[in-house]
Design goal:
This protein is mostly helical. It has 17 helices and two strands.
Amino acid sequence: MDTIASKTDMTKVTFKLALPSIMEMLMQTLLGVADTAMVGTLGGVAIAAVGLSDNPLMVMMAFFAAISVGTTALVARFIGARNYRDAEETIKQSLIISLIASVVFTAVMLILSERITLWMGAEPDVLPYATQYLSIALIGLPGMIITMIMSGALRGAGDTKTPMLVNGFSNVINIIGNFILIFPTRFVHFDFPGITDGFTVKILGAGLGVGGAAASTSFSRLLAGVLILYVIFRKKGKYGISVNRKTCFNKEIIMRILRIGFPAAAEQMLMRLAQLTFFRIIATLGTVMIAAHKITMTAESISFMPGWGFALAATTLVGQYLGGEDPDKAKLGGFTAAKMAITVMTVFGVLFFLFPRYFVLIFTRDEEIIRYASTCLRIIAFSQPSLAATMVFAGALRGAGDTKTVLWVTAVGTWVVRVGGGYILAITLGYGLAGAWAAMVADFTLRGLVFFYIFNKGKWKHIKV
């Protein structure tokens, strides 16, 4: 990054930082697609059960996402200032916090798992499956939390490759586990016309259905946590955190992490609760609408790949350049990442609008679900450029430590526009699922424009972390 002298150089560096994260998201998305498709073969009830269970898990991740944001921003600042000792100390302190808090959160949610699924609006036919999935999936929550926070630390240091490899490998293990645990033992015939008569293979399976999907997910998340800790602690690695050196609470570092992280926690919590409330609105429309919503979300997540990757690149670039006292390059890095993300995600928007059915067919053959999901995918196609801007500029502001601004913009967008507008359009005016998704488009459009204005104004350059 020290060699950047032009916009072309910045584009190359941004792409180099973003590509591993995009590939990581690609693997997660494709494997998530396969995961949903496997569960989808069990029917609409199974899809709804997984959707109901995943949402409360995402709400609980808000606190840990905050630690991750604080860790990423602080590590990036220290690395930019060549202060490697404090960068290592930041990683250690964030790990201590996450280990303690993850155990507490997991225990509480296990006790309340059935009540949580009831609150989410699970209908009688879905409730037992949703409770089973949530209870088993919670076992892997500590691994998921550790992976999230340590990945954030590595990205702050400019290492986006290691999180890609760890998360990619664990997701492959998840799919293999699904293949074995979800389905019963069966015979699969492979036919090659014109070459051979084919052959039949016996594939062993546990036949655990939704519970098998949850067990595979938990195991893969725990595995990811172990792998990323190995990378962090190995003696000959770049980071070399030693368990032999005395480790204790560092109040100053923890407070600096939390000072950045608390607004990020509030932002994530408000956003996740808004998503839960939004989902709760959709749940009142029935099991078919829940399944259509879940499938549309999964299909749309394909477009998140570039947005997520370039947002992480912006976080690293802004944080490290501010640490190196070069705010102009920090701003250039943010805008470069945004332009690249908007370009790619606009292409996805065109594909969603023109060919929605092909994306939805990956997950289900139920014509009623296909019809509703295709309509929603066409609606959300219009928000892809503004969604890219929202993701990248919010990531850039987090890298600067300006998490308070991200908090209030997200609060207004998700609660007033998405939830409030979604209820009016879907319930009051009777537009149903399509009305709810139209409100989501309005939310992304508003946030994208506001984040662009704030980042361009530049007050974030003077924030101290």
